[in-house]
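Standup notes
- HV: blocked on the assembly model, inputs below
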Amino acid sequence: MSTQNHIVRRYRPAAPLGGRRVAPASRQRSITALAFLAPALIILAAFVAWPALSALRLSFTDASGFGKEEFVGFGNYVEVFTQPDILNAVVNTVWYTVLFTPTAVLVALGLALLLNNPHLPFRSFFRTALFLPFIVSLAVGAFAWSYLIDPQIGLLNYWLNGLGVRIGNVLQDPVLAMPMVALVAVWKNFGFYFVIFLAGLQDIPASLYEAARVDGAGPWSRFRNVTVPLLSNTFAFVVIFAMIAALQAFDQIYVMTGGGPYGSTQTVVMEIYESGFRKLELGFASALSYVLLIATLLLSAAQFVFFGRREKDLS
Amino acid sequence: MTTATAIRRRSGLRPSTVLATLALVFTTAFVLLPIAIIVFTAFKPVAEVNAYPPTLLPTEWTLDNLARIMQELPFARLVLNSFIFAGGVTLFALVFDSLAAYALARMDFTGQRVLLVAIIASLMIPFQATLIPVYQLVSQLDWVNTYAGLIAPRAADAFGIFFLRQFFLALPRDIDSAARIDGASEFRIFRSIVLPNAVPALLTLAIFTFVNNWNDLLWPLVFTTESEMGTITSGLTLLTGPGGIIPYGVMMAGSLIAVLPLVIAFLLVQRRFIESIATTGLK
């Protein structure tokens, strides 16, 4: 598999340099290395590491941008999980993740499997066209979708009516609004997962399929016994990646519903934006930020467990 | 593959291929529909935009919507801001990330592993979670509503460092060890040997960074409060917000201008770009 090639390629050239560590110029080299690293490290320290610690400190205070900050212990965190509005945003974000992740992943996987057929005409056209929404901003995509599903003059709404499907005013419907904003995100993001699946499928050696065919395996059996096991790593990666993206839902919701109707599309990041930058409840918004941060870290940790074998060959 | 099956599989259309093609044609049409509606609505007269039954194509083409969007916002300014913001972030991040990636991939020094782990750890922090302290910092520097405030916090990026490091690791080391023996400085090796060989990776990262920043909504919403300093992405949302209901035709004209530079850039390099983002996500 290509992973192995990758490791071999990585280690082979290092051999002639064996023993560099004991070179007398090692101190000089450390100083040079630091010079290369300095600009990036300064930016990351100032705008990622320090803010991450600062948000943690803020989350235990009642900071509001004005006056003194008082230490409030776990008060903000208690509020996140007890105040109905906020708990609603947390629950909505989970619901959004549940709607978005399987849909986006399965659409991407299905299309990748279809496109992996070597006899298919116009493969590179399909690949480019299906990837195109990924470079359109979610905000702009949201404008287009809002127009398409407009209850009076929306083209998609009109076509669906023709098929006997009446969706009504989706964005004003507390039940349908969330699936709708999730669908817009699926539309934007599936192309990215799709090309990752496609690359994963193309990494599976054709000889394995041929061997299975020689052994009398039908299409389903080949899929079940060759594709599924060899694509499972890619699948796990994409699922976690999609879940992390789902936790950050904001853009299309801000454009299409503003969190409504009746808070039914309010998400954690919408709430961070509103409480942090509109209401200036910095302490509280920081606690909510940390809930997001910890959820993301847990998912990333799961990713590292899955990919631990790969990470072992880091330098 | 045996010759017999190869011939059978090449000759004629198999039903499964026909079905797959039909499914893809249908799906692709659906996926492109929102993009098509932006393009066509941008050129529709108001009467057609609001007509029932709605149509996809305009019967009469007009530039009125494009003319109107220019008046609705400081539109040229917002497009310029988008170029400066996304271009500035891309430029700085490419330089700083590649320098850092070089040290992590091609040099040997004490603490290398610790730094690498720290950078990977910071990769996991979503920017939304640190937005409040970053805003406070930018505000203390008096950088709100400035290009510096938009660009500086993103002038280096853990993902870019990690991505380039993986690419640099895979480049053969023979040439740079020879150059090192000949007394070439590390910077010389970086600039003359490693960078020229990393052009595909740099190009991919550049497009990825540019697109992400051009399209970002939350970042410019937070760091700019004057509409003059917003980006095209954040500026357009002002038109749909409270008190800003404007005709769909004008919205779509603005959307068209917002996506056009990206679509053109993407179509120019699409094959290489898709291939490299597809594989680097994993390796």
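- HV (later): unblocked. Residues 69 and 298 of chain A are 30 Å apart (CA to CA). Chain A touches chain B through 112 residues (CB under 8 Å).
- Next: hand off to the docking folks.
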